[in-house]
């Protein structure tokens, strides 16, 4: 299974419509990939909170959704289109990831559960998702998470319980916490005994330098491939059978102890 990560430079000097067109062409060029992955909020920028409302769009029929569906068809690949600022018909904004099949059909949408900002930015302006989302591909099962979710291992345990073997994590991760990005991606892979496909943005937007360094981590925690800080296309071959083999050879997941009572203070 060939996965291609597109680490996009979110340059505030580039108009959103121009970036959307450029990224769609880049996706369409990835023929031969089985799965193409884009970063979090690449149309507007994960820290460009002042622009969230203006750039919000529906999941069905919005400009990014239309462009990404067409790009998936052109590439003939599954496309995790990163995330968009979704405007729900009932009013709230969400940070929503979109997964398209090779025929351009929207197969899954995941609303980010853990919002970053400590009562500012995303945390103040967006509602949080409430559902764990996993999606079955012909070769494997994807578990969907986004950026700040990476700090919450319980979500990834639930994705494993839902059958996930490849954990896809689009992000807009700050450069000043790059060490955490690598550490947490490896930790989630080791504890889940699954691949982690972590795709971030490059460049600087809203004054926040991005970490870049998109990576693919195998079920044993080894980094198979890692990008640098700038815009880059990163391609790596995954072996879904390796997940089952790792879980059988080192069956740590079967030793989980659940239902431990919460201690009283």
TrEMBL record:
Keywords (A to Z) from UniProt: Hydrolase
Domain annotation CN hydrolase: ranges: 1-240
Family annotation (Pfam families): CN_hydrolase
Superkingdom of the organism of origin: Bacteria
InterPro entries: C-N_Hydrolase, C-N_Hydrolase_sf, UPF0012_CS
Any one GO MF annotation of this record: hydrolase activity
Family the UniProt entry places it in: Belongs to the carbon-nitrogen hydrolase superfamily. NIT1/NIT2 family.
Cited PANTHER family: DEAMINATED GLUTATHIONE AMIDASE (PTHR23088:SF27), NITRILASE-RELATED (PTHR23088)
Protein name: Carbon-nitrogen family hydrolase
Organism: Actinacidiphila acidipaludis
């Amino acid at each position: 299974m060939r996965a291609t990560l597109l680490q996009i430079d979110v340059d505030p000097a580039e108009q959103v419509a121009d970036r959307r067109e450029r990224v769609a062409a880049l996706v369409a060029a990835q023929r031969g990939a089985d799965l193409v992955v884009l970063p979090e909020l690449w149309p507007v920028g994960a820290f460009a909170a002042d622009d969230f409302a203006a750039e919000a769009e529906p999941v069905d029929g919005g400009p990014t959704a239309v462009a990404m569906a067409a790009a998936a068809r052109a590439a003939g690949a599954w496309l995790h289109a990163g995330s968009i600022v979704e405007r729900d018909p009932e009013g709230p904004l969400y940070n929503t990831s979109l997964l398209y099949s090779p025929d351009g059909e929207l197969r899954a949408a995941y609303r980010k559960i853990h919002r970053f900002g400590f009562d500012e930015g995303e945390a103040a302006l967006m509602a949080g998702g409430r559902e764990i989302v996993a999606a079955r591909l012909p070769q494997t099962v994807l578990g969907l998470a986004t950026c700040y979710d990476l700090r919450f291992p319980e979500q990834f345990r639930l994705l494993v319980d839902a059958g996930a073997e490849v954990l896809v994590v689009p992000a807009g991760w700050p450069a000043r916490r790059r060490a955490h990005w690598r550490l947490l991606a490896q930790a989630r892979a080791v504890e889940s005994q699954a691949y982690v496909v972590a795709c971030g943005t490059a460049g600087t937007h809203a004054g926040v330098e991005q970490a870049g360094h998109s990576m693919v981590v195998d079920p044993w925690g080894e980094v198979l491939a890692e990008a640098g800080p700038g815009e880059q296309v990163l391609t790596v071959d995954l072996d879904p059978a390796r997940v089952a083999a790792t879980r059988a050879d080192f069956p740590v997941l079967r030793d989980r102890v659940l239902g431990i009572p919460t201690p009283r203070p």
